[in-house]
């Protein structure tokens, strides 16, 4: 299925049905039509300006920015995209700082002691899982991207340019878990903190790198 974003002109009230006909697969949360044996999932929306973009959920921001412009005769969206990219640059910096802060909160002694005293190892593991998900999001921010939806974020993260050494093996080790085991919790936490969180700390102490964002995550360019 090919994903498309179709924007109507400002002030227009035209509908997707008027252009593409009825939605042929209503359970999917897009306007879906089949043309010449190819399915299209269409996000039909008003013109996306910077203000509208800033209010999108993060997975939608990811999708919008990874899209290629196919038709923009007056360069209306191309010009607006320059403003959007200025917003994105600052927004990603804030997201990265917030993600790292959230990780430290989840793995703090205060949070761990609360559940450790109750022998609630399953909750400790789940808090660590949340920290790992935040770490994956932070890798996208570091590389100049928003994070895609959680159901594909780890898979897409492997194609990012700036990653911890042996990332593929690390993510396997840290995601493998025995949820009622105290020993396994501390095994996973050490791998995560030493190799993934430590990776971010190492970058903070090294000379500033050029902003990546020159190449999209490889898998995100594939058809759904």
Question: How is this structure best described in words?
Answer:
This protein is mainly alpha-helical. Helix 4 (76-106) packs antiparallel against helix 6 and helix 6 (121-142) packs parallel to helix 9 (182-205). The longest helix is centred in the middle third of the chain and has 31 residues, at 76-106. Mean pLDDT is 91; it is low at 219-224. The chain is elongated, with a radius of gyration of 21 Å. It contains nine helices and three strands. Strand 2 and strand 3 (38-46) form a beta hairpin. Helices cover 53% and strands 9% of the residues. Strands 1-3-2 form a three-stranded mixed β-sheet.
Distance between the termini: 5 Å
Helix content: 40-55%
Largest sheet entry: 3 strands, mixed
Q: What would you call the quaternary organization?
A: single chain
Instruction: Classify the secondary structure makeup into a structural class.
Output: mainly alpha
Strand content: 5-15%
Mean pLDDT: 91
Strand order of the largest sheet: 1-3-2
- Low-confidence sequence ranges: 219-224
Q: Encode the helix/strand succession as letters.
A: EHEEHHHHHHHH
Counting DSSP E segments of at least 2 residues, the number of strands comes to 3
Q: Quick one: overall form?
A: elongated
Number of helices: 9
Gyration radius from CA atoms, angstroms: 21 Å
Produce a short descriptive summary:
This protein has 224 residues and is mainly α. It has helices at 16-20, 50-54, 58-66, 76-106, 109-116, 121-142, 153-157, 167-175, 182-205; strands at residues 2-8, 31-35, 38-46.
Topology:
Blueprint: E1 2-8, H1 16-20, E2 31-35, E3 38-46, H2 50-54, H3 58-66, H4 76-106, H5 109-116, H6 121-142, H7 153-157, H8 167-175, H9 182-205
Parallel strand pairs: 1-3
Antiparallel strand pairs: 2-3
């Amino acid at each position: 299925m090919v994903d498309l974003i179709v924007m109507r002109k400002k002030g227009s009230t035209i509908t997707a049905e008027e252009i593409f006909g009825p939605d042929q697969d209503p359970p999917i949360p897009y306007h879906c039509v089949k043309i010449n044996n190819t399915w299209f999932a269409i996000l039909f929306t008003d013109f996306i300006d910077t203000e509208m973009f800033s209010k999108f959920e993060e997975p939608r921001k990811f999708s919008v920015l990874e899209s290629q412009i196919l038709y923009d005769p007056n360069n209306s969206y191309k010009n607006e995209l320059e403003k959007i990219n200025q917003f994105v640059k600052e927004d990603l910096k804030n997201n990265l700082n917030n993600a790292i802060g959230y990780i430290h909160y989840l793995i703090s002694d205060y949070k761990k002691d609360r559940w450790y005293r109750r022998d609630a190892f399953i909750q400790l593991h789940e808090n660590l899982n949340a920290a790992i998900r935040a770490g994956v999001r932070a890798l996208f921010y570091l590389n100049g991207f928003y994070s895609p939806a959680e159901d594909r974020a780890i898979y897409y993260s492997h194609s990012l340019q700036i990653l911890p050494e042996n990332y593929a093996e690390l993510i396997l080790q840290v995601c493998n878990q025995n949820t009622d085991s105290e020993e396994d919790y501390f095994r996973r936490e050490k791998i995560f903190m030493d190799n993934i969180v430590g990776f971010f700390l190492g970058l903070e102490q090294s000379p500033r790198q050029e902003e990546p964002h020159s190449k999209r995550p490889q898998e995100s360019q594939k058809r759904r």
